[in-house]
Amino acid sequence: MSHPLYVIDDDEAVRRSLGLLLLSRGHAVQAFASGEAFLAGADLQRPGCVVLDLRMEGMSGLQVFDALRAQDSPLVVIFLSGHGDIPMAVEAVQNGAFGWLEKPCSDERLLESIAKALQKAEEIAVRRQARQAAETLWSKLTPREMQVARLVAQGLANKRIAQELAPLEQRTVETHRAHVFAKLGLSNSHELDRFLREHSL
User: Fold this and answer.
1) CB 51 within 8 A of CB 22
2) How much is the CA Rg of the chain, to the nearest whole Å?
3) What's the pLDDT at 186?
4) Of 31, 53, 64, 174, which sits with the fewest C-beta atoms within 10 Å of its C-beta?
5) In percent, how much of the chain has pLDDT > 90?
6) Residue ranges with strand state E in the chain
7) Which residue intervals of 107-166 are DSSP H helices?
C-alpha cells in the first residue's frame, strides 16, 4: 500500500527539484507552497510522510508541525532546515518529528530518510487498522460484558466477579465470560489482558 508523500516549501525551485527527484524514484508526491495550503488540502488523518521546510512565509514549519500534533495526525514529518535553524530542528525532533535534514541535502540522504519515514508510516497504518478492528470487536460486547471482561482480564475468579458486580449470579458471570471470549476470539484471561492493553481499551 502506498502512502502519501508531501513536500511543503515556499521556494518554487526546491519544490520543483524535490518533486522531480521523488517522481523519478516512483513516489507519488504532492507539493505545497505554504503550510496553510497543505493543512487545507492534504489528508491529515492518513499515514504518510511530510518533507517540511522550517522557515516559510506565513506559517512556519514548526507551526504546521504543531497543527498536525494538535490534530493527532499520523503523518511522519521530516524537517528541511538551513544551518541557523538546527537548534529548532533538533527541538522539533524531541517533540516527535521523525528527523531533520540540513539544506542543501544530498539526494541519497533525502531518499534514505523518506524511505525510513514511509516505513514508519506503514507501521502506524498497520497499528491503526489493528486498533480499529479491536474497537469493532469490543463494541459488540454489551456494557455488562465489558465490565466482566475487565475483571476477567485482572485474573479474578467468577465468584469474585459476581461479588464485585452484585447483585449478579455466578452462573450469569460464567455466561458473560463465555460470550466475551467468543465475541473477541480469545481463549483465556492472559490473552484478554493483552488485548485490552495493546489497544488501550
Assistant:
1) no
2) 24
3) 95
4) 174
5) 82
6) 5-8, 29-32, 49-53, 76-81, 99-102
7) 107-138, 143-153, 158-164
Residue written as cell 508510516? Answer: 121
pLDDT of residue 1 exceeding 60, the answer is no
Q: Is the pLDDT reported for residue 17 higher than 70? A: yes
Residue 50 CB neighbour total at 10 angstroms: 28
**Which residues lie below 8 Å from residue 162, measured CB to CB, with a gap of 6+?**
168, 169, 170, 172, 173
Other Cβ atoms within 10 Å of 99 Cβ, number: 15
3-state secondary structure of 183: helix
Please tell me whether the overall predicted TM-score, pTM, comes out greater than 0.85 for this model: no
Is residue 77 a contact partner of residue 97, using CB atoms and an 8 Å limit? Answer: yes
Look at residue 84 and tell me whether its pLDDT is greater than 80: no
> Coil, strand, or helix at residue 196?
helix
Q: Do the bridges between strand 29-32 and strand 5-8 make them parallel or antiparallel, or are there none, so unpaired?
A: parallel
Q: Are 141 and 176 in contact (CB under 8 A)?
A: no
Question: Looking at this protein, which amino acid is placed at residue 42?
Answer: A
Residue 64 has pLDDT above 70, yes or no: yes
Contact 149, 192 (CB under 8 A): yes
Check: CB of residue 195 under 8 Å from CB of residue 201. yes
Q: How far apart are CA 167 and CA 134, in angstroms?
A: 30
Scanning 26-106, the segments in alpha helix (DSSP H) are: 35-41, 61-70, 86-94
Per-residue pLDDT of 124-134, as tens digits, reads: 999 999 999 99
